[in-house]
Design goal:
Length: 286
């Protein structure tokens, strides 16, 4: 993953011999991984036409998906819909509050679907339940304890548990970045991380730095492109139309197993833009 095809040919001394190959093939080395989508991207479409939306995603080039809710469907119905569309559900998202109260049921559902990963999409739980508002450092340490316990149960059930970041994890207290504390206090044997690269950038950090330092902790990535508006606010846009360079990110992600595009807002037709996202990733030269 660290060399483009051109660099490989140069290194092996075969660039001249390969000159007869099609120029487009010579100059590109698309990422050799199935294109995935976080289904939160189509949260407004699935309730209207669940099966039809899945088939459209498959037609757009998506092969893998990550669930964001089950839309009241049984595991059998959810899984059958995926199979008929030609999609594989690799992972799912649940908030920590839900995992703390419904873990056994969620594990059973995940096993029935054949999930590889169960991801906590939002922490939001205080050590002191009477407190409200933003989590402080002690709360994040409590969250890490919860993750270790949940991760052990998920692993025993044959899946991998992980955590998906937003931007709040990059707040600081006494000079300590909350996300760094999560990495430090969670057991790498039972807790992995799904890096949302877009939110890492919005949070003021570089995904490459974390991926280079802890490559084995990040088997999953969320990829989204972002652009900063004149008023300082960030907006989610079609892949390739923002400011995030994904080439160095994927090169640094040496522990990567799966990635999921996530587009949370759209300017035009969502399915058209999601097709553009898939086309971008299909052509990405890393």
């Amino acid at each position: 993953m660290t060399f483009s095809r051109r660099r490989f040919l140069k290194a092996s001394g075969t660039l001249t011999a390969a000159a007869c190959l099609d120029a487009d093939c010579l100059l590109s080395a698309p990422l050799r991984m199935p294109i995935g989508l976080q289904l939160y991207s189509v949260r407004n479409l699935l309730p209207k036409d669940f099966d039809g939306t899945l088939h459209q995603l498959a037609d757009a080039g998506y092969k893998e998906v990550e669930a964001a809710g089950y839309f009241g469907k049984t595991a059998a119905d959810f899984g059958n819909a995926m199979q008929k569309a030609g999609l594989k559900c690799i992972s799912t998202h649940h908030q920590l509050a839900q995992l703390k109260t419904q873990l056994d049921q969620l594990i059973e559902y995940g096993q029935a679907l054949g999930l590889q990963y169960m991801i906590c999409s939002w922490a939001g739980v205080h050590r002191d339940p009477t407190r409200t508002g933003d989590l402080n450092l002690d709360d994040w340490r409590y969250v890490a304890e919860q993750f270790n316990a949940i991760g052990a149960k998920v692993q025993a059930a044959g899946m991998t548990f992980g955590y998906h970041n937003h931007t709040v994890e990059f707040g600081k207290e006494n000079g300590i970045v909350y996300f760094d504390e999560l990495l430090k206090r969670t057991d790498p044997k039972v807790v992995s991380f799904e890096m949302d690269c877009g939110w890492v950038v919005v949070g003021g950090h570089n995904p490459v730095e974390y991926l280079s330092k802890f490559p084995e902790r990040f088997p999953l990535l969320h990829v989204k492109d972002m652009v900063k508006e004149p008023d300082g606010k960030w907006r989610n846009v079609v892949m390739g139309k923002g400011t995030i360079d994904y080439k160095p990110i994927f090169r640094a992600a040496t522990g990567l197993k799966h990635y999921f595009i996530e587009q949370e807002e759209f300017e035009g037709d969502p399915m058209t833009e999601l097709r553009e996202d898939a086309d971008f990733m299909r052509k990405l030269d890393v």
